[in-house]
Amino acid sequence: MLSIDWMPNPKDAMPLYQQIKEYIKNKIAAGEWPINSKLPPQRTLAHIFQVNRSTLTIALDELIADGLLESKLGSGTWVANNTWSLLTSTLPVNWTSYLNRGIYLPNLHTVQEINHLEFNPKIIRLGTGELSPDIFPKAMMDSILRKLPNRIHSLGYEEPRGLPFLRQQISTYLSSFGINASPSSIMIVSGALQALQLICTSLLPKDSTILLESPSYLFSLKLFQSMNMNFCSIPLDEEGIEIAPISFHKKHKNTNLLYTIPCFHNPTGIIMTEKRRKSIIDLCQKEQLPVIEDDVYRELWLDTPPPTPLKALEKEGLVLYLGSLSKSLSPGLRIGWIVGPEPVIERLADIKMQNDYGSSSLSQWAAAEWFASGLYQIHLEEVRTQLRIRREVACNTLETHFSDIATWQIPKGGFYIWLILSQAISMQKLFKTALDNGLLIHPGHIYDPLSNHHLRLSYSYASLPEMENGLFRLSTLIRNLMKQS
To answer: What does the pLDDT average to over 399-407?
Structure first.
């Protein structure tokens, strides 16, 4: 999707449609929008430019008349093939043909739109899985950053496995909930997503089959499909991922790995019980099925601490454990970690060095100081306090406006409420209608391709007034769509 970070100025003497026309023309002339580039839908463009559809239509029609754009029936508006004959005497490289040949598949269109629109300050973000800026620990972060000059003597590359001081701090931190991991069995990554990418490219053969919960965060990504990996969905119940289907698929299919989010699952919020965790480990040990435990939400408990990690229940190196500061502190630090057998960590570190030569040294030093200073635990207490308030506001608002059209479970931690609508509606239509009304949502079909009853709501990001107002408006939109169904 083309990136647009500009809006016309209503105070300018030039008419709005003319400003839009000149903006698009300049993008094409500069080669930033090459031939065969598809423009966002008119509805989206009008929203980005903050103009009505008629104003946008005038601008696009004139660009089409000038030969700069063309409209393809049922396919949208594109930069025309003959654009460059009007602007230059030489033909450009057809970058579109390169785009279609890359290894990585594009994100789902809805996910692309979410990724772009999450940076629009005028939109209420009802699905964002991130702590609100209101919870950002600015004073603590200032304190941490002021201490770093006395610790850092160089900002060169770190060891392949990451800064030793940070790995030692993480080793101590992990021991507080039962994981005994030496620094040599820990590797620093730029968030849990990079950990998944490294595992996929370093350890799994093509056409591997990965078992995972359904619905799952991974269905919103194209990472594994790009690497020719196959997903096999395993149902969830109130105790977590079900046992019997894992055993069946391991015996009857070429299954290579189990991926699970046992703490405050994304998107459902379910927490795997201690009994189920032990059963999972027993089964996977018996079947020799490696496990990726994605535990990035562990510290976001609101009622009671979660059960022991899967990693702490085994001693044979069966589980690769993923942690991160992205959910609990700051996604911008880009600091996460993998815990596993030393030969596996060494292999992953070697591949990571081929990719980026190590995560940011500055971020690693900052993360280490958060742990060493004790401020991280103090911050977590405040995060839990704020999330409890937000959870209460969200659940009260849902009770007021959604009780007759949906059901949900009160989350015990994490960010998410998995809303189950009483009537199926078009998730794509709801997404677009909500966007037209200034609401950005996460429809269920990006986590389960067959879902037309679900929404992933987040109480972690939007301000409390925005959350209440946004949920009320969303309930009205859903009721209208239900009446039309």
So the answer is: 98
CB atoms within 10 A of CB 464: 17
| β partners of residue 322 | 294, 338
**pLDDT for residue 225:** 80
- Structural domains of the chain, with CATH: 16-102 (1.10.10.10), 124-130+378-484 (3.90.1150.10), 138-373 (3.40.640.10)
pLDDT in tens, 184-201: 999 999 999 999 999 988
Q: How far apart are CA 318 and CA 314, in angstroms?
A: 7
The tokens of 459 are what? 């109480």
Instruction: Give the separation between CA 402 and CA 478, rounded to whole angstroms.
Output: 10
Beta-carbon count within 10 A of 409 CB: 14
pLDDT at 177: 95
Q: Is the distance from CB of 187 to CB of 173 less than 8 angstroms?
A: no
Within 10 Å of residue 222's Cβ, how many Cβ atoms?
A: 15
For 352-371, the pLDDT digits (tens) are 999 999 999 999 999 999 99
- pLDDT class for 480, splitting at 50, 70, 90? very high
- Residues near 378 by Cβ (< 8 Å), separated by ≥ 6? 140
pLDDT score, position 88: 54
Do 1 and 113 meet the contact criterion of CB atoms below 8 Å apart? yes
Handedness of CA 428, 433, 438, 439 (dihedral sign): negative
Which of 115-153 are b and which e, b meaning 16 or more Cβ less than 10 Å from the residue's Cβ? ebbeeeeebbbbbbbbbbeebebeebbeebeeeeeeeee
As a whole number of angstroms, the distance between CA 194 and CA 188 comes to 10
- The Cα 263–Cα 258 span in angstroms is 15
